[in-house]
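SAMPLE LOG
Freezer: B-3
Tube label: C17
Construct: single chain, 353 aa
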Amino acid sequence: MTHKLRNPGSALRRRVSGLAVATALTVALAACSEPGTSDESTSSATESNESTSLRVYTSEPQAKIDELVAAFNEQNPDIDVEVFRAGTGDLTARIEAERATGAIAADVLLAADAPTFESYKSDGLLQQYTPTGADALDPDVVDPEGFYVGTRIIPTVIAYNTGAVDAPPTSWQDLTDPQYLGQITMPNPDVSGAAAYNAAVWLNTPELGEAWLEGLAANEPVIAESNGPVGQAVAAGTQPVGIVVDYLVRELAAKGSPIALRYPTDGVPYVSQPVGIFADSDSTEAAQKFVDFLVSREGQELAVEQSYLPVRDDVGTPDGAPAMSELALLTPDLQVITDSQDEAVVTFNELVG
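STRUCTURE (predicted):
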């Protein structure tokens, strides 16, 4: 099958540099920028003279985590939630710096990929907690040992600009076609947890593997900082095709952007945005309430409103999204992915970077 671009053009290959994290690692949470002003910001959801403090580190978009905390506080007005948000790579760097100098400042981690949580579990950084109603959740997102649980299904898909692409690619293999030279953009696995996870999944999927990644690299994809800029580039037509998480495409299309998506027919990788409680948290009860809310029916209804696919089957799916049963989700052995992810990112950077 061939797929033609109306205005293919040419694009210089470029890399967008990763976030500078060195200075951020030494800055106290209270000194971070105001919500919405940068990729790393701190917000306080409530003000109370008699409250329990809860610190959350997350890779969630700022507007979404603000909505989530506001909904949580409707049920728990006595819990003062402080949020620090950044890309998963920057969060893990911050956590490592805090470990080296003392203790982790956060109580809860809500971030993109399960391998990160597997590593923290192995290092003894997480405490066991099985949320209320866990039996209603997709078992694939629940850590069987009870150290973390997924909170939403976030597939990675092929996005395309509907004004530039006549017949969109429908599989990962399609993206190795030479007609897409300079036309593809994708996120940086050094910053995006989902992108790092995808690199490991692709390389460990027999039908794809290193040969496929070499074919993709030959088309000189533009590496953007994260999923957000990828979606924006495709919507603007700067790069007609993108590899990006699905909810961003739905949101941009709902705002009128000429963008649509295809779930790859040769398998859909996804992250589950797990949540876990740090072992040295001094606000364990509040942290447990936060975890409970995330996977509760109310919390999952909010996830659907925010264009996410849910981790339970009693809350529906976002408008325009397929039923979970319609997706060919890739569910590789998590231990294999965890053990190989760092090497996969190195391989990705060597081939594509």
